[in-house]
Structure formats: structure tokens, C-alpha cells
Write a structure and sequence with these properties.
Layout: E1 8-13, H1 18-23, H2 25-32, E2 37-44, H3 49-52, E3 61-63, H4 68-75, E4 79-82, H5 87-95, E5 100-104, E6 115-117, E7 121-122, E8 125-126, H6 131-141, H7 157-170, E9 178-182, H8 195-209, E10 212-215, H9 222-231, E11 236-238, H10 246-255, E12 258-261, H11 266-272, E13 277-280, E14 296-299, H12 320-323, H13 327-339
Parallel strand pairs: 1-2, 1-4, 2-3, 4-5, 5-6, 9-10, 9-12, 10-11, 12-13, 13-14
Antiparallel strand pairs: 7-8
Helix pairs in contact: 7-10, 8-9, 8-13
């Protein structure tokens, strides 16, 4: 009988998107606690370190070099667990000489892997299974077993103090409930709901629930954040630009009564902290993110022949999946989520 190939130094290549990374946290925590491995390293793009900071995975994070092959050469792992689905990720692991390479066979990369998961297909096309399920099943090929799929995030006391100071500096009173609004989307323009719709939703939540709007986003989303703020009839607070990082965002969403967001990574922050969330979805397939929905409402336009197209920009030019999504539908979903807040008094 051959020796167990899953031993020695495990290198986990983490996902590149914020949402996918948060969805992978149950697997990452299971990996760093797996007693079969003498060492576990989690390769991560440097700008994403704040997502995992403060939690049990953070001590294992290795920022990826610009040329990822340099990271592999330095670490010389025995096993590479690839939680990204790109062809390049598998090619770099093979060229670096990693003996055991585990991942999905998506992107025509199956021949580059020693252990591969072939996702289910339907009529010759990949079935739209949730990303969190795919990550879990890929990890299971290496014997890394996540006990559940609930995302896990944490933050340190010093970060909480810093983030709450920034919240106060932005004008959010300490005794007021607030809604965090993240109107941007790094994926592309196709996922953007019009700024005036976000503004109308924030105005309605202020009028009906007394929620103060608190706007934030990545540096590249500053123009969208400013456009939403300018379109609001009621005063809203805007995160200071120098405070808009992935660590502070955890605290802000943790403390919020509600998260109003596009189809983007912050949605999974809310899932990790059991915060009510309303996410507006356009070109994406809802099945791909159909996990951790206990406290989230996905609002989308049903019945469009062109949706989901999964495109970064609308290939037809009309953007109907976003422009036909009404403010009333989003506000109704938000009110329902607020009425069923699982945290009770904590959100008041």
C-alpha cells in the first residue's frame, strides 16, 4: 500500500475575490487545524490579508509574491490545495514541482492536477452549484473536512476601536442604528445598481426605520459612493477614505442593523456575523452563491431571457437586470429582514 500523500507541508492557494475568500474560511480553518500536516501555509494576495486578520488562519498567511512561482520555490510544499479555479494557478503549482496538486478540473486544467474534482455538468455545461460547496468538495479530496459552511471572520479589539472611531468621525451617532451601504462591485459595471436607486432605498429606510445611512467602498469605488451620497435626500454618512479597508469593514458590518449591498464580497461579511443583508443581483447566477442565506435576501429581476449572462458589462447594452430592479422591492426585502433580525437587542 502506498504512503499517504497528504502529509508534510500543505500549501492552500486561497481565492482571489473577497466573497470567495470569506466563503472558503470554513475550509481554511479546517486545514490549519488538520493534524496530518506538519505545516500549513495559506497563499493569499497581499491586499486580502485584512479579511483573515484576527482569526485562526492569520498566522498561516503567506502573501503571494508577484511571481507566484517564487512563493512555491521558497516554501517547497508537499501538497498544493488549489481553491482557485484558474488554469494559471494549476500550471504554476506544477511548474514549481509540487508533488501533490489538488483542485477542480475547471478551466481545462485537469491534466495539471494529481487529484481533481470534476464538477457536475448539465447538457454539456457546468452545473451552477454554489461556490462554497465546490470549495468544500475540493478540500475533501485532500481529506480536509469542514464541519459546516458558515463563514467565519474575526477582528481584534484594537481594530474595533479604530473602526468605531472612524464611524463616529463620519457622523454616525453612537446611539443610532445604521445601515452600511456598499454600492460598488469590483467584478464590473454589469453588477452596478444605479446610484439613485441606492439613495432612494437609504432615504426610505431612514424615513421608515430611522436608520442612518453609512456609505463605504473600495478606493476604486469612490465615485460610486459619492454619487449615492449626492443623490440622497436625507443626510448620510460617508466613511473617511483613509479608513476604507477590509478590516474596518468587518467591524462596521458587525455593528450594523443591516447591510445593503450589490452582488459583491461584503455580503459574505454579513453572513459571517449573522447580520441582516439585502443584496441586489443582476447578471450573476443565484445558484452560484446559494449558501449562507439564512439572514440574506437576494433581490433580482426574474424572467429575463438574457439573465444570468455572467458578463462584466451588459452585452446587449440595456442593463435590464439592474435598471428594472425597483427600489420598492429592495426596501420591502430590507424591512422583512429587519423584522426578523436574529440578534434581537444587539441590533438596537
Amino acid at each position: 500500500m502506498s504512503a499517504d500523500p497528504f502529509r508534510g507541508h500543505l500549501f492552500v492557494r486561497a481565492p482571489n475575490w473577497v466573497g470567495d475568500l470569506v466563503m472558503a474560511t470554513p475550509v481554511l480553518e479546517a486545514a490549519v487545524r488538520d493534524p496530518r500536516f506538519e505545516r500549513v501555509s495559506v497563499g493569499l494576495r497581499p491586499h486580502l490579508r485584512g479579511v483573515l486578520a484576527g482569526g485562526p488562519v492569520a498566522p498561516h498567511v503567506v502573501p503571494l509574491a508577484k511571481d507566484e512561482r517564487d512563493t512555491y520555490r521558497e516554501l517547497a510544499p508537499d501538497v498544493a490545495l488549489l481553491l482557485t479555479n484558474s488554469f494559471g494557478a494549476a500550471l504554476r503549482a506544477r511548474r514549481a514541482g509540487v508533488p501533490v496538486r489538488v483542485g477542480s478540473s475547471l478551466s481545462n486544467r485537469g491534466a495539471l492536477l494529481t487529484h481533481r474534482l470534476r464538477p457536475p455538468t448539465r447538457l454539456g455545461h457546468r452545473a451552477a452549484i454554489p461556490t462554497a460547496h465546490l470549495v468544500r468538495d475540493v478540500a475533501a479530496l485532500a481529506g480536509v473536512l469542514a464541519p459546516d459552511l458558515h463563514p467565519r471572520l474575526a477582528f481584534e479589539d484594537a481594530v474595533a476601536e479604530r473602526a468605531r472611531a472612524a464611524l463616529a468621525a463620519a457622523g454616525v451617532p453612537a446611539d443610532r442604528r445604521f445601515v452600511v451601504c456598499c454600492p460598488g462591485a469590483a467584478f464590473g459595471a454589469a453588477k452596478l445598481w444605479p446610484p439613485e436607486r441606492f439613495a432612494a432605498a437609504l432615504d426610505a429606510l431612514f424615513e421608515r426605520e430611522g436608520l442612518v445611512g453609512f456609505l463605504t467602498g473600495a478606493p476604486a469605488e469612490a465615485a460610486i459612493v459619492d454619487a449615492v451620497a449626492a443623490a440622497c435626500r436625507h443626510p448620510v454618512c460617508v466613511a473617511p477614505p483613509d479608513a476604507r479597508d477590509l478590516e474596518n469593514l468587518k467591524v462596521w458590518i458587525h455593528d450594523a442593523a443591516l447591510l445593503l449591498v450589490g452582488d459583491s464580497g461584503p455580503r459574505w461579511y454579513a453572513a459571517a456575523f449573522d447580520v441582516p443583508c439585502v443584496s441586489v443581483m443582476g447578471p450573476n447566477s443565484p445558484e452560484l452563491t446559494a449558501s449562507s442565506l439564512e439572514h440574506a435576501s437576494i433581490v433580482r429581476v426574474e424572467g429575463l431571457d438574457c439573465s444570468p449572462c455572467l458578463a462584466r458589462t451588459c452585452p446587449l447594452g440595456h442593463h435590464a437586470c439592474m435598471t428594472e430592479l425597483t427600489t420598492d422591492a429592495v426596501v420591502d426585502a430590507a424591512l422583512e429582514r429587519l423584522a426578523n433580525d436574529p440578534r434581537g437587542a444587539r441590533a438596537s
